[in-house]
Amino acid sequence: MCKIVFILLFLSSVTAVSAAPEAYVKTTEQFRQAQRDAPAAVIPAVPYAAASASAAAPIEDSTEQMREALYMEEGGYAEYKVTVPEDSLYSLALRYRPLDSSSGRLLCAIRLNGEFPFKEARELAFPRFWKDADRKYKTIKGNQPFPAQEEITDWTTAACTDPLGYTPEAFLFRFKQGENTLRISLLSGKMALESVSLVPASASQLPSYAEYLHTAKAAGAAEAACEPVKIQAEDAILKSSPSLYPINDRTSPLSEPYHPSNITLNCIGGAAWKEPGAQIIWEVTVPEDGLYRIGVRFKQTAMRGLYATRLLRINGETPFKEASDLRFEHATGFQFQYLGAGSAAEGKTDNKEGFLFYLKKGANRISLETSLGALGPILYDLEDTTRRLNDMYRQIIAITGVTPNKYLDYQLFYRLPHLR
After folding, report:
1. What angle do CA 225, 227, 228 make, to 5 degrees?
2. Contacts of residue 150, Cβ cutoff 8 Å, sequence gap at least 6
3. Which of 33, 273, 274, 325 has the lowest tally of Cβ within 10 angstroms?
4. pTM for the whole thing?
5. Alpha-carbon Rg for the chain in angstroms
């Protein structure tokens, strides 16, 4: 049985941004009659139907791929005409390349037929990636310096998702029958846009783990028989923030490498790995195609009595539903766990050995991304309820003042009938 082990991840709690978005879930009521199996489509960034002057500027890079891309800077936009045979639901994925240096994510807005389909579409975040500039620190015997972080400006494909983490899956956009106008505006940064992919809603629906495993085995996949592959977590090849650099932990002599007094970089994550969407990517090379279990040695001390949640992707794709809600329970020290073993995300099954994941022979990219998991809808409801209560309170004190007179009848139910 072949296993993959990540050594020393620091997991922290997810910080739910306090802004209360309008319900994307409320817009899904209009999705019921829309086609979910419409054909996929890819819209090249060039040519476009309309664009701002800055977006139409030529790109200095003369490579063929860049010549076919659209340059966009802050405040720029481009519009595209999209024709569909019937009302259809699509998720959108942008293929882009950052053209400036910044520690923040690229922010875009998307309008469909002149309107924002939901509030979250006013500000969608697309990740940038960094790597260690070098790993010379590994050769230093004393205190090891933190490696500088170098931004990677390679081409990236990312779906339009909730930057607050309330909705774990990609947003769905409803395209009406006939011609639609899609406008993409860049709110911050500079980027080259190569294409926009329209992914049918049915393709973005993840199978359950049982369905995923059945499909893999029906295709001939079997549990790989090879020696375990161990990867030090601090050797990540990409991270979505320059703050996700290797760190030091001296609380366990089982950590590799370990020194009782020197600063030895042997972990990654910690307090920097808590914002929704923050992700770390590792490259794993396996000797054969097959099904593998993934184990991690981690420390989660931030959320007493709760769990931290991570979303897993393999080669850019989440394999099944349960992989979007991997839970890491609180403990005072390091723990070892196979992903999915005893997890509440499994629906409390008797799976004690963890999930099996299909990996192809050679290099595979495995990422873990901070998410709210099943807490997302709960936290959204809490935010939405708090917002509505605050609105009601402000409406009441606008009539009564902050110190109401108990002898007056303010006729609140008459003035504010929605309080009934």
Report:
1. 110
2. 130, 131, 132, 133
3. 33
4. 0.85
5. 24
